Amino acid sequence: MGYVQEARENHVKKKVEEALRSKMKQKALQQCNHYTAKYAECASGRTLSVVWQCRKQAKELNGCLHQYTNDSVLEEMKKEYMLQQDRKGTT
């Protein structure tokens, strides 16, 4: 399959892509809730020192979030959305 054909198949409207990104971020936050809680606990009561005192927790949280919020995940969500739209169109 050529690049242009693949791009056409995975193309969605800007509003749809924004909604999919939002859904992806929500799912990531749910999946990484444990790391979010650890970071929040470390950051509690701190101001500037949070940057160096909570570096480990921030790195863990970012690592977890990146698993669920990257381009390949978004592309899969777009493909699933397009398949759902095709099913709706054929029924």
From TrEMBL:
Annotated InterPro entries: Cyt_c_biogenesis_Cmc1-like (IPR013892)
Subcellular location: Mitochondrion
Keyword Nucleotide-binding set for record: no
Primary location group: mitochondrion
GO cellular component, one term: mitochondrion
Keyword Disulfide bond: yes
UniProt KW keywords: Disulfide bond, Mitochondrion
Family statement: Belongs to the CMC family.
UniProt protein name: COX assembly mitochondrial protein
Originating species: Nicotiana tabacum
